[in-house]
Design brief:
Layout (H helix, E strand, L loop, with lengths): L1 H12 L4 E4 L4 E4 L4 E3 L3 E5 L4 E2 L2 E5 L4 E5 L5 H5 L1 H6 L7 E5 L5 E8 L2 E8 L3 E4 L4 E4 H10 L1
Length: about 140
């Protein structure tokens, strides 16, 4: 699923000044010190690096986490709350591992808005002017 999302975003972001990265890019939440490997990270413009660890970016615009049985509670709970403290972050996407469900958290000023998308729907990623088709995200997993 993460590979399908990364591929879709790479195509859509071509020429925009934003770049999609797979899980090899680390993100540092400066407010909490948490370092993570999101499944997909989008950075727009120059990447800002953690002064203490230049392998970590601190300015993601969008993060995608594909939930798994072992990490779902942490990803939906503590990790999500850490991500919400990243000032550059506009959207957080959580992709369910059990069913065709994509959850979108969108920053609205100082608050976050939650929206759910299911089979047949498009997930609008306004922060990066892209969309993700729920069916396309899950197609590769069904065909594997």
């Amino acid at each position: 699923m993460a590979a399908a999302i990364t591929a879709s975003l790479v195509r859509q972001l071509e020429g925009t000044g934003c770049r999609a990265y797979s899980s090899d890019l680390r993100v540092r939440v400066l407010a909490t010190g948490l370092a993570t490997y999101p499944d997909v990270t989008v950075v727009c413009g120059p990447s800002a690096r953690d002064p203490e660890s230049p392998t970590h970016v601190t300015n993601p615009r969008l993060i995608v986490e594909v939930l798994s049985p072992g990490t779902e509670d942490y990803d939906r709970g503590e990790k999500l709350e850490h991500y919400k403290q990243v000032s550059s972050l506009s959207e957080i996407v959580l992709v369910d591992h059990r069913s065709e469900l994509v959850e979108l958290w969108t920053r609205n000023g100082t608050a976050w808005r939650y929206t759910r998308f299911s089979a047949g729907e498009q997930v609008p990623l306004g922060a990066i002017s892209c969309t993700l088709a729920v069916d396309d995200i899950y197609r590769a997993a069904r065909e594997a």
